Structure formats: structure tokens, C-alpha cells
User: Fold this.
Amino acid sequence: MKITQRKIDTITPYENNPRQNDNAVEAVAKSITEFGFRQPIVVDADGVIIAGHTRYKAAMMLGLDKLPVHVAEGLSPEQVRAYRIADNASGELAKWDKQLLPIEISELQQADFDLSLLGFDEDTLENFLVGLDDSDASADGPPVETDESLANADAMGYIEAAEHIIVQFSGGKDSSLVLNWAAPILQKLGKSFEAVFVETGAEFPDLTPYIIRFCESRQVPLRLLQSRENIILHWFKKNSWPDSKYRDCIHGFINDAVNRVFVEREKEFGVGKVLIMRGGRSDQKTTLSKSNLYQEVGFGKHTARLLNPFFNTSAEEYDAQLEKLRPQLWNGYELGFIRTACWACPFQRKDQWDALKKHYPLLAEEMKRFARRFNWKQYKGDKTFQRMRKYWLGDAAAATDGSAIDDSNPIGEE
Ligand code: SF4
Assistant:
């Protein structure tokens, strides 16, 4: 591309320029002062501006005498007109990566760079720096109002009888809803309670910050636990994923850690006085804790008492409450993720893996590496793993199993 320096008075703005740019002139002038003129103005053969009106006005404001100019030759009048619009429109279509932009901005801030030169207004900058954007920062908001009667009288009876309540919080929709609902009620009842979140080593990078903000904004004491071993290292060592039927990941890594807190609290509050509360939709009875309103489950010499307070809540009511809370939920749902836990979980839907590829390409590469390395023989005939193998390694690799791939029965949301 040929660029020449031309006197500013040989250039003419296009009189019907459809783009209103006066608000941006000052910011562009600041940028030119700081960084210099790094992008030429594009003009037609007569010196009429096709692209670069704001830079031109900024140069006038700064009193510049000459400008770098590129003459777009060989375009028809219609092409020039179209290019003038397309040049502005394509900038509007592009979006900021809400994960990467705040990192870039905060690194500039740490280097004491003048952020006003970036051209964002103060509020927008602040939003980027406190979280990712408006929607994500909203996890800081106060509890979304819910009706106490969302849980029935039986559920309230178990809550009132308990001396201490552990809310098992995964950061997912269901447990966020239950914690949002329970926090003000338990505070009003003067109950001792806490949220417990277990980090396994396979969470999405922004999940723990969400967990912390969600609890802080509701004044809920949070126990942040580590699983007994990093789950990714564990899978690497045994060269395979968890068991698809027994779900040894949930029992061995998450419930095991929560049970340790349960035992500790029973020592403090008395046997039979501690209740573990979990989230779950009324129509989602896939796990033990979701198969009834209240369960007693033995482990070692102990008996955990589990309450699913929304067990009897109608699906309509449940969904309506979830909809109200949606703006405060983990930002990943906006990006297309279905579930919060374990980016390397083998029991996922295609949409979840598509979102992983799109938003966490490095983690998706790791998934592929696992898929190449792990031992598949043990999964022969297991439809969950056939589905996964097909997704990550393609049809040819999947076909070596000798069995048809079944896309049905992906697990539901957590
Ligand atoms: S997300 Fe998947 S791998 Fe992780 S604990 Fe849950 S079922 Fe297991």
C-alpha cells in the first residue's frame, strides 16, 4: 500500500459522510499525540476522504500541517460509497473479547499507562477493571428477592430443626438459586450457616472469583476447599476419566471434601444437628440428593443429612425465579456454557464443548490431548464415552470402537 505525506489543505471531507464522529475527535486527537499518526487517511483520486474523517478532524484540532494519505485507485463511485459505509460498519460489528480486554487494560494500568488514551469513558473502564463487564460484575449485586414459600413447609421444618446448615455451592444455576434464596432466610432465622465450594483443579478460570463475589454480596461465610487431589493430575495418573456410572469424581473429590466439613460441624453442633443443602430442579432427579426432599446417606461412621429445598417447587415457579437471578449468574452461561464444573468433564453436551473450543482454546487443546492419550478400551460399549470420543477425535477414531455412536442421553445441567 502506497502512503504519502500530503498537506492537510489538499484533503476534503466527504460532504455527505453518514458517520457522526464528533464525540470521538478528542479521544483520537489524544491518541495521535501519544502514539503518532499510525493509520493513513484513505482518499479518492480527488482528495475526498473515504475513510478517516475522525482522524482528519483530530489532525485539524491539533493544527497538523501534513497527513499520511493513501489514495484508493481503481474504485468505481459506487465502490467508494460502499467502502465508506463498510469501513465504519465493520468496526461496529467487531466485539471486544470480554475475557482478554480487561487483562490487557489492567496490565497497562499496572505499567502506569494513562488509560484515558484508550478512548473508553471512565465508567466503561471501571467496569472492565472490576470484573469483565456490566453483566459479569452483577454477581456483586444484592440477593434477588425470592419468595420464602418457594420451599414447602416440610423443607422449612428441616431447616428450622438444624443447628448448622452447609449450603453446597458449585457456582451453577441450581446452587446459586438455592444460596440466593437461603441466605436472607437463614440470616432472618439467626441460623449458623456457610457455603462450601470445592476446587478440584478443573474449574473454569473465572469460576472461583464468581463464587467469592456471590457469597460476599450476600454476606455468606464461604469455605473454599481443595479436593484431596488435583482431579486433572489424578486422571493423568490413571490415564482415564471418571467412571460414567458411579461418578467417582463427584463422590471422591467433591462430596468427600464436603463430608469432611460435615464431620467437623457435627463435632461442634452435635450429631444430627447439621444439614447439607443442595440445589436442584424439581424435575431433575438424577442424583441421590435430588431424588427426594430429604435423604440420609451413610458414609464411614457418619450419616449425612441432605435437603433439596426446591424438591416440591413447580418447574414453572423454579424457572421464573431462575430467570430473575439470571443477570447475576456466572458469566460463562452468557458465553454458551451449559454447566460450571470441570472443563474436562467427559459427560457433557456438544454445546458445552463448542463453547470450550471458542472461549478457552488452550483448554480445548488439552481435552484433545487427553482424548489422544487416554485409554479407551475400558469404555467400549459406553455410549457417553463414544459420544465424547467422536467429538474430540472425529468419526474415524470413534469408528475403531466397532460400535455405533449414540448422541442421546447427555447429562443435564448441574
Ligand atoms: S463436572 Fe463432570 S468430571 Fe467434574 S465432577 Fe462433575 S461429573 Fe465429574
In short: Residues 242, 247, 249-250, 254, 341-342, 345, 347 surround iron/sulfur cluster (CB under 6 Å).
